[in-house]
Amino acid sequence: MVQKASPKSSILKNCLNAFWTGGAICTFAQGLTDIYGSAFGYDIKDARCLTGLTLIFIAALLTALSLYDNIAKFAGAGTLVPITGFANSVAAPAIEFRSEGLILGLGAKIFAIAGPVIVYGTACSIVYGLILCVQGLF
User: Fold this and answer.
1) Model confidence, pTM
2) Which of 30, 11, 19 is CA-nearest to residue 81?
């Protein structure tokens, strides 16, 4: 019954859409890294960091404007693999449940899709950053 009710999809077309879209996102990211490095004079480490931040911001903005879902419908897994998929998985529940309030809506549901691993990853990166900051003072 499920196979009869499910729409037919072309595996080749879906794979190509994912390939081209994921490749376009990664090419755009490399272009940003090059621009941050050459035009603004950042070293490669800082340029890559700024690129990641820019991609996260763009994905969250597209999610808020309800445009990311349209891109994901076309691209499929092509939007899941890069950092933009991560940003979407955090921003989407935050936007969806914002009407339920900051605590029970946003706070409780923001990591529903991305998972609790993100919480520990973020906490560990903050601790690591503080250690490096304190270490740099001495």
Assistant:
1) 0.69
2) 19
